[in-house]
Write a structure and sequence with these properties.
The chain is mainly β and 150 residues long. The protein contains 2 helices and 11 strands; from the N terminus they run βββββαββββββα.
Length: 150
């Protein structure tokens, strides 16, 4: 039997592939684009808006904008929202699509210079191969630091 600790979620954003431990995930929501509450102007770079999650408004962030990935972010009227734990409260990360959840055995870590992945300049711990495709391995708390969380 597989447990969430041994599983990873693969998702896409701006043509790039990402992998996130399932243990870093609170839930996944599919929402209509108009479900986001947007107040203009957005002071925080990469903030799409906020979403009512379990009675509290949580920020929904666009990692693609933060990493300067190609646009458009959302091909249709639906937004895939990954709800992640934060330092103070949950927050949402928009994704273009989810490939699925797979056991750790489906991934192979690639050896890359540690300088490239210095957490001061790059929010990803490592690159992993999945079906011979390089994916950026990320963690919720490290991603949140892109927006100033401690």
């Amino acid at each position: 039997m597989l447990t969430p600790l041994g599983m990873k979620l693969v998702f896409r954003l701006g043509g790039a592939g990402f992998v996130l431990p399932v243990s870093d995930l609170i839930e996944v929501n599919e929402l209509p684009a108009d479900a986001l509450q947007v107040s203009a102007p957005q002071e925080e770079s990469g903030l799409l808006g906020s979403f009512l999650h379990r009675g509290s408004l949580i920020p929904v962030r666009d990692l693609g904008e933060r990493l300067e990935l190609p646009r458009p972010l959302f091909p249709g009227e639906q937004i895939t929202l990954l709800v992640l734990p934060g330092a103070d409260a949950p927050w949402g990360l928009a994704a273009e699509r989810i490939e699925g959840v797979f056991p750790n055995e489906h991934f192979r870590q690639v050896s890359v210079s540690e300088w490239i992945f210095s957490r001061r300049i790059w929010p990803f711990a490592q690159i992993v191969l999945w079906k011979n495709e390089p994916l950026l391995h990320c963690e919720a708390m490290t991603l949140e630091r892109l927006w100033g969380a401690q």
